[in-house]
Amino acid sequence: MPIVSDIGVNAVEFQASSIDASTEKLNQILEKATKAGPRWYEVGAPKYRQMVNEGKTPFPVPPLLTKAQDATVPSREPGRNIWVRFYKPDDGNPSKGIYLYFHGGGFVMGSYKDQDDMLKTFANSYQLTAVSVGYRLAPENPFPAGINDCVDVAEYLTDHGPAVFNAPLRIIGGSSSGGNFAALTTFQLMRTRPQHRLDAVLLINGLYDLTLNMPTTVQRQDSVVIDRGMLEKFIEAYSLGASAEARRNPMMSPLYEDVQKLAHDSPSGTLPPALFTCGTADPLLDDSLMMSVKWMASGSEALIRLYPGAPHMFSAFKGFKVADDMAAATMAFLNERLGG
Fold first, then answer.
1. How far apart (Å, rounded) are the C-alpha atoms in residues 47 and 93?
2. What tens digit of pLDDT does each residue of 309-339 get?
3. What's the CA gap between 150 and 144, in Å, rounded?
4. Strand ordering across the sheet containing 69-74
5. Quick one: which H or E segment has residue 29?
6. pTM
7. Which of 4, 65, 103, 287 is deepest in the core (most CB within 10 A)?
């Protein structure tokens, strides 16, 4: 009887012949756009955020939808609140749960107010109350400010979601650096709220090892959207230049969490079901490969979907095949776990 591997990978997803014309076009557009303006660290984070808000970067200003609303959640620090933005289903029917989302931006860029289209999609596709978190950004607020804000909001919604939004917290998700926060927040909820079981975790091209020692982050110096130099600047700002050893702190790099022990100690014996998604041209590809395998090795359910030739954050570009394919995979995953 032939020996069968305990872990399987569809090698076709990594072959150049699997990259379709639509994805090649997206890469060309993004490569041109990312070369058209200054990088955030060349002008400073505050100035670049202002440029984003004023439409002075190669990317359009995200729309603000009238039905999205702002609110605040108390933080662990007395007298300070955390901004959140939420969108409820347009049909007016009761929400089936809360989807808590952490935006990307390398711990430095991005805003909870930039997510209205995504919030609307999740609210109406799954009958959920979708919530985006305005966590504090580096370098003004380095580690652990951002992750503390994310955990505070998650714990508050676990405790008060049914009273505040008439729905329980059911899903946590995040993209890029927000994927880092999503994984860490999930782990922290398992410690502090062990009786609360999430239905799903969505981990989108996440950064799970802040040492930046994964092979793809080392080898892909000139990737589209983000490259090695930009990643180093993000991590330097967030970690205040901490050493690689210090960045192995599991509250900073979820890849170093003892997930087997965390699962074993939980009432369910497993981590929540997780969907990992990443493009094969993303320098953070190995982060997703390694984190998903560790999730599986804990005895927990984890699926990883890879998209040939897709760059970092490709899912934000609706209308391109890879983005639409990922949206369809996410819908299938969530419908199975939410009973849709």
1. 42
2. 999 999 999 999 999 999 999 999 999 999 8
3. 10
4. 69-74, 81-87, 129-134, 98-102, 169-175, 200-204, 274-279, 302-307
5. helix 21-34
6. 0.97
7. 287
